[in-house]
Amino acid sequence: MTLRAEIAQSWRRAELSGLKPDSPADRLAGADVADIDTRSRLLRAADPVLTEISRHLQDTRLSVLLADRDCRIVARRYGDKTLERALDAVSAVPGCRFSEEISGTNSLATPHELRRGVAVHGDEHFLDALKPFTCYGHPITNPATGRLEGVLDITGLVEDANPLLAPFLLQAVTDIERRLLDGSNLAQQRLLAAFQAAQHRSSAVLALGEDVVLANSAAVDLVDPADHPMLRELSRTRRGVRRVRLSSGTEVEVRMEAVSVNAGMLFELAPLRPAYSAATRRRSPESVVPADVEDRLRRSAAARRRVLITGEPGTGRDAATATLAGSQPVARADAGDVAPVGEAEWAARLDRLAATHQGLVVVRDVHLLPPLAVSRLARLLDTTSAWFAFTARQCDTARAGGTETGEVDAELLARVHRRVELPPLRARRGDIPTLARAILAGVHPDGTPRLTAGALELLAAQPWPGNLRELETVLTDVTEGRSAGDVTARDLAPLCPVTTTAPALSGWQQAEYEAITRALAAVGGNKVKAARDLGISRSTLYNRLRTLHITTA
User: Fold this and answer.
1) What 3-state class would DSSP assign to 390?
2) 291-398+405-418 has which fold?
3) Are 473 and 481 in contact (CB under 8 A)?
4) Which residues pair with 148 in a beta bridge?
5) What's the pLDDT score for residue 26?
6) Element (H, E) at 309
7) Are the folds of 5-182 and 291-398+405-418 the same?
8) What is the mean pLDDT of residues 455-472?
9) Which of 466, 437, 470, 465 is nearest to 453 (CA)?
10) Can you give the pLDDT at residue 200?
């Protein structure tokens, strides 16, 4: 059987998730069932439309299923009890999640994955249990925000297939989207009314809705769009008054107030007098080095101390050495060159640098040096007054008499005055707006495209196994060919596999989130391999993916 391209690709995704065609469909009801929020915006908009559809479905063997943005079935209408029983048998019931990783190829899961309408007929279903059905599904997009709200699907038995089902369903989707727009307009009106009532206050007032930002003049001067994701995240878990530091470095007191149901949040911000010293100042706007690390490096530079800079690949070790050098010239010797040029020649080059270079001499990837080169470098450090710095991968131990990947020889560690460790990007999510701007300024020095608040929120949700280097690659790719204009979350979505729907996580959950996303990134999204590498069962991995709201492409 020859499959259409979109169906073949869906089958491949299902296989990578560990599904098999003979996987029983009745297991779905126990895999991930949750309570339905009957007051959700999607259901409020869809309910009248579904009621009208029910009238047309009378005396037919057709059913309409509505799934939310997590591909969880939240409503079902049918015209015949026979089809109801057939859907019950394959767990197509309200509360059950029907994503591709769970249910394979079908017209709920595949439109949810592809973000466009898809028909799936009979044998095109991945699971054997779904092959008796024919169905057509189409995503529901909020016209005000452009965000996916859910999927509407019409399903019948194979013998009842009808080409008119697609336009019938598409009209229903259009009606639901129009009602979503009307609901968004009402939410905007409520948010505007709350903002107008508060904007006369002397403090900065900011209102954030799903697709609306309102600010008085004081808030425009104080709050940068880069701060919006932080404020949204804060409002998800907190109410009342909090002290936070904005991306500008200004510490403020924030009072948060919800505006009706789903309308948005009202923030009142008042700057506080800085209570921190110059030692904790913000880093330079163009720097990608953390502020505390930058301060330690500058103090080391004043005394020309030898510094070992460690960190995961891509965390900015070269940028840190540039910060350390300041205005002094930098000469670099790469430990990876020892093998091609020979230990004797490499050591001789380093001797010449130590004797002639007036600025900073950087030995990159010092953990790769063979034992003899380590000994010669140690002897050089004992006799020279040259200023040296070293970079290495993140390492927890020193090994005497030799090195392994990620380890720095104890001989060298004994001759280093200060060790600085660069944190991975996943531990610096609050810095991502500033980092993204600094990177874009370097990529586009003649005109920097603007990242919207939604784009910054999406960037902050990613696991970034490649750290700053990966962030730079994504930003370079998405802004190629443009020097101005807004970069939105939609622009970034193809390059950012993790969505921004995850709730605030505890410290333990954050560690778990990072371990899982790193494991998935390492195996190209293959959940079977990721579960094996993590030492957990596939079902446990699926449960954690759902609990932590980790969505993979």
Assistant:
1) strand
2) Rossmann fold (3.40.50)
3) no
4) 141
5) 66
6) strand 307-311
7) no
8) 86
9) 437
10) 74
DSSP lists the bridge partners of residue 333 as 363
* Paired tokens of 161: 């297939």
Residues 6+ apart with CB under 8 A from 280: 291, 292, 295
Topology of the domain covering 507-548: Arc Repressor Mutant, subunit A (1.10.10)
Q: Report the predicted TM-score, pTM, of the whole model to 2 decimal places.
A: 0.52
Q: Which residues contact 414 (CB under 8 A, 6 or more apart)?
A: none
What is the rounded radius of gyration, in angstroms, for the C-alpha atoms of the chain? 28
Q: Which two tokens stand for residue 199?
A: 């904007």
At the top level of CATH, the class of 427-493 is mainly alpha
Torsion angle, CA of 377/382/383/387, rounded to 10 degrees?
70
β-strand 398-399 against 408-409: which pairing, if any? parallel
Q: Which of 549, 547, 496 lies closest to 521 in space, CA to CA?
A: 496
- Confirm if 98 and 72 have CB atoms less than 8 A apart: yes
As a 3-state breakdown, the chain gives helix, strand, coil percent values, each rounded to 5, of 45, 20, 35
Q: Kindly indicate the confidence band of residue 300, based on its pLDDT and cuts at 50, 70 and 90.
A: very high
Helix (H) or strand (E) holding 510: helix 507-522
Structural tokens at position 3? 């499959």
Task: Report CA-CA distances (Å) from 104 to 48, 297, 444.
Answer: 30, 52, 43
In the prediction, which pLDDT does 280 show? 39
Does 372 have pLDDT greater than 80?
yes
Cβ-contact 325, 360 below 8 angstroms: yes
* Mean pLDDT calculated for residue range 354-381: 93
Block residue for tokens 């609306």: 212
Tell me how far apart the alpha carbons of residues 266 and 297 are, in angstroms, rounded to a whole number. 40
Q: Quick one: fold of 5-182? A: Beta-Lactamase (3.30.450)
Q: Which residue has the tokens 């391999």?
A: 529
Within 79-203, strands assigned E span: 118-121, 133-141, 148-157
Separation between Cα atoms, residue 158 and residue 165, nearest integer Å? 13
The DSSP 8-state label assigned to residue 495 in this structure reads G
Bin 18: left if φ > 0, else alpha if -120 < ψ < 50, else beta.
left
Adjacency order of strands within the sheet including 204-208: 213-215, 204-208, 264-271, 251-259, 240-245
> Which parts of 303-370 fold into alpha helices (H)?
317-325, 338-341, 343-356
- DSSP-derived letter for residue 199 is T
SS3 state at 473? helix
Q: Which of 123, 105, 107, 121 has its CA nearest to residue 170?
A: 107
- Domain residue limits, the chain: 5-182, 201-271, 291-398+405-418, 427-493, 507-548
Angle at 505 between CA 222 and CA 241, to 5 degrees: 40
Question: pLDDT at residue 60 above 80?
Answer: yes
pLDDT digits (tens, 9 = 90+) for 212-266: 788 888 888 888 887 888 888 787 766 678 888 887 778 899 998 888 766 788 8
Q: Is 1 helix (H, G, I), strand (E, B) or coil?
A: coil
